[in-house]
Amino acid sequence: MLIGDRKFLDAIFFNSITIESVERTENGIQVIVDNPTHISFDLTTATGNDPSLDFFASKTLPSGKQTIIKIYTENPSSINKIDLNFIVENLLIAPETGLPVTLSFLVE
After folding, report:
1. Among residues 5, 23, 61, 64, which is most buried (max CB within 10 A)?
2. Helix or strand run (H / E) with residue 32
3. How far is C-alpha 85 from the geometric centre of its chain's CA atoms?
4. What is the pLDDT of residues 70-90, one digit of tens each?
5. d(CA 82, CA 92)
6. Is-contact 87 43, C-beta < 8 A?
7. Percent of the residues in the chain that have a pLDDT greater than 90, as a whole number
8. Phi first, then psi: what are they for 19, rounded to 5°?
9. DSSP-based three-state secondary structure for 50
């Protein structure tokens, strides 16, 4: 658990993870996220996501590992960019308030 100013926690999160690949599949999009740091990140889905996309409600990006995020949709060939809104529950910007983040993926 880290507690701090939003700009510092934002920098920690976005400088800790990398998007290794984004691939279109038959029933959606598959994203591989790498977290080579010693900090795991606990994500929960935030509001404002595209309702046509179906993905996890909560997921941990474990330290030192890659994580697969599967995003299901009825028409994956029509998607070129995805923005997913999350709350990083173990990076607190205020008491009981996790860091809001948006992960954006370009699908080729």
Report:
1. 61
2. strand 28-35
3. 7
4. 999 998 999 999 999 999 999
5. 25
6. yes
7. 96
8. -90, 115
9. coil
